[in-house]
Amino acid sequence: MTSTVPQKTATNKFEKLKAEKDGLAVKDELETFAQLGWEAMDETDRDHRLKWLGVFFRPVTPGKFMMRLRLPNGVITSEQMRVLGEIVQRYGDDGSADITTRQNLQLRGIRIEDLSDIFQRFERVGLTSIQSGMDNVRNITGSPVAGLDADELYDTRELVQQVQDMITNEGKGNPEFSNLPRKFNIAIAGCRDNSIHAEINDIAFIPAFKQETFGFNVIVGGFFSATRCEAAIPLNVWVKPEQVVGLCRGILEVFRDNGPRGVRQKTRLMWLIDEWGIEKFRSEVEKQIGYALELEAEKDEILWEKRDHLGIYKQKQPGLNYVGLNVPVGRLYANEMLELSRIAEVYGSGEIRLTVEQNVIIPNISDSRLEAFLTEPILEKFSVNPSALSRGLVSCTGSQFCNFALVETKNRAVELVKELEAELTVEKTVRIHWTGCPNSCGQPQVADIGLMGTKARKEGKTVEGVNLYMGGKVGKDAQLGECVQKSIPCEDLKPVLRQILVEQFGARVKE
Ligand code: SRM
Ligand code: SF4
Questions:
Q1: What count of other Cβ atoms lies within 10 Å of the Cβ of residue 473?
Q2: Tens-digit pLDDT profile for residues 3-62
Q3: Is 268 a known active-site residue?
Q4: Beta carbon of 396 within 6 Å of any ligand 2 atom
Q5: How far does the centroid of ligand 2 lie from the alpha carbon of residue 56, in Å?
Q6: Rounded alpha-carbon distances, angstroms, from residue 352 to 139, 196, 260
């Protein structure tokens, strides 16, 4: 299979490998890979092209692959969750899953010889992992309480699904968008609290009215990378919901055909916007979609502080509730996935939602079933009412599975919070985000306290350390936090955080 994309000069190794053979081509080679085994198969197919199917070779755990799904708007059915639980269950201790910072799931422990079977299972329950890695559009995020929240302005679910269907050819794979210059993130906000961090996406749609008509202001170019982090800037455009799919297509086509393909660190959408200026960028997008866009609405509707959706909330449907459960750093094991699936069926409507804070929401629990729901044993681990630090804890994968990582993150994050909570009384949620390296998958720049893995020196030795970020603000008037202290050895981090929590977040030292 070759991509339909006009090739600009291929000047980095990723451009070369894409030009040689489109990533989606490996879809037809799974049987061969299974026969050869991961050691003998072509390394470029294994390490790179399989990511077009959402399959990631892990140098840290060779032979045990990661699979990244696509769960538009973070919605998953209990049946789908059960299938995923069963898939990781067969790998014993190697099998687990992580809820990601894009409202999504990644499976661990996957063997190459099982891929064909796994894809067949996916198909039976309407799941796809297509084009979820490398130079493709990532999971598209939307309000996690879409369709449930009485105060929402727009139910984003269908729109997010339509955008995904356009990009992925309904999950079958789409060579039109399989060779972008770089990864690409899209988010659609439907509530007043910017629950999906619109500002850190390449394209984000933010609720805004023109007179009485609902639509979205559009911002573009937000991204984090190891060398540069930018909040998205206004495209100065307002669109109605029915224009969203077409505008995403137009922007993707402009990016695909004109985006820089040279130095890899300079290939995200913002670099094209820098080169052209936002006016030219908008006019090229207008040429591509074939009509002039309306200017943005004067104000948007992001008026609230961000909610985390943990706890029990009334839905707009009378007599029904949604309950947000705190999944520590998003890590799930097979039995827990099966349990979540069961409780969603027994008490709710068989639906589960995921949040960008790596937590779970079970919707549609009737008033009469709520009390019984709250006695379920799994809620002892996945708390409805977690402590103030656990509640705001987010962590990227870290060195357990990620070869970019400079430090271990998830276990350390949980342990440290436990220790701090044993010493301090903290009343208000503090959002602490861990990320294992400057790629910033754990989004330390949106946190109250962000911790980015680095190397530090202690007693003449190189040790695991963190750079400290502070001041990230989410929701209304969102802004990115900044690095305030560098290279703190992880061993010395607890007293630093303790002091910050006492001095800046009102924590009290326990007797
Ligand atoms: Fe990420 C690469 C994990 C969200 C910026 N990210 C990676 C890889 C694939 C690297 C690798 O091959 O090992 C990591 C896989 C590790 C593993 O085994 O899990 C990885 N990224 C993650 C996840 C799982 C973190 C998490 O624990 O939640 C998130 C998956 C989201 C999803 O469902 O698709 C994840 N990554 C993000 C985000 C946050 C977001 O999207 O809001 C960012 C910053 C935002 C952005 O992209 O602008 C992010 N990841 C990166 C980058 C830097 C991109 C750049 O432009 O330079 C890389 C490195 C790269 O692409 O070369 C990267
Ligand atoms: Fe891996 Fe770094 Fe991303 Fe963490 S931030 S998942 S360590 S690439």
A1: 15
A2: 445 445 558 999 999 999 999 999 999 999 999 999 999 999 999 999 999 999 999 999
A3: no
A4: yes
A5: 13
A6: 16, 17, 39
Alpha carbon of 437 to ligand 2 centroid (Å): 5
Place of tokens 């984000």: 204
* Three-state SS at 193: coil
In CATH, the number for domain 391-509 is 3.30.413.10
- What are 466's two structure tokens? 């963190």
What residue owns the CA closest to ligand 1's atom 17?
402
CATH class, range 13-289:
alpha beta
Active site (annotated) includes residue 396: no
Distance CA 463, CA 56 (A): 28
Active site residue 471: no
Phi/psi-derived region of residue 379, left when phi > 0, alpha when psi is between -120 and 50, beta in every other case: alpha
ipTM of the complex in this document: 0.99
Give the residue from 14, 99, 89, 104 showing the smallest Cα distance to 51.
14
Domain residue limits, the chain:
13-289, 391-509
What is the C-alpha to C-alpha distance for residues 279 and 296, in angstroms, rounded to an integer? 13
> Do strands 432-435 and 393-395 pair parallel, antiparallel, or not at all (unpaired)?
parallel
Q: Indicate which residue of 442, 453, 472, 481 is catalytic.
A: 442
Which residue's CA is the closest to the ligand 1 atom numbered 13?
A: 402
Write down the H helix ranges in 354-432.
Answer: 367-373, 378-381, 388-391, 410-423
Quote the pTM value.
0.97
Same fold, 13-289 and 391-509: yes
